[in-house]
Amino acid sequence: MKRLLFVMLMSTSGFAYAEHGCQDGYIPVYQGGQQVCVADYNLPSWSNQDSGPAVRSTPRWADRWGAIATGSGAKLGAVVDMTSEKKAKNAALKECKKNGGADCKLNISYHNQCAVLVTGDSIYNTAHAATIDEAAALGIAGCEKEDVNCRVYYSDCSLAERIR
User: Is 88 exposed, middle or buried (0-12, 13-18, 19+ CB in 10 A)?
Assistant: First the structure.
């Protein structure tokens, strides 16, 4: 009976010991009484590699810029998804001029957000926020302080782009 119990305990503890809590491709190593997991270079998947097992990398994001420019005669130039603020500003001014604006001025530049142009009966303003709805609420609230019949004339987003 004692021998059977000993065999059962050994087989159970051996099974638990084999798992070690390391993820696939790693094996346990004991350093100073502490277990750490290291790459198992004896696996066939290592034969053509110089580094450890594939580890999921943290996503990398690239900023994306947008801008809004306006000119006389209610001319608008708006761009999104530019790779820099300078490119966004220049492209918005160029777009405004292309649309017939003679004296185009930059109204807003923004990155990784949404923007709106809100018009009222006699003024316009711009706003940016995380979403179009938030930007619209800000823009309309600002417009309504000075004007009536405020509404969103233009809206778009220039959101960060995942590059890895």
Answer: buried
Task: Give the range of the structural domain holding residue 36, as residue numbers without chain letter.
Answer: 2-46
For residue 95, what are the contacts with CB-CB under 8 A and spacing of at least 6? Answer: 69, 76, 77, 78, 79
Give the chain's domain count.
2
**C-alpha to C-alpha distance for 47 and 45, rounded to whole angstroms:** 6
Q: What share of the chain is helix, strand, coil (3-state, %, to 5)?
A: 30, 35, 35
Q: Is the pLDDT of residue 7 over 50?
A: no
Element spanning 69, H or E: strand 65-71
d(CA 95, CA 115) in angstroms, rounded, equals: 17
Distance separating alpha carbons of residues 66 and 85, to the nearest angstrom: 7
Residue 55, domain member (yes or no): no
Main-chain dihedrals φ then ψ at residue 113, nearest 5 degrees: -150, -175
Please give the average per-residue pLDDT across 92-103, as a whole number: 95
- Measured CA to CA, the distance from residue 158 to residue 80 in angstroms comes to 5
**Mean pLDDT for the chain?**
83
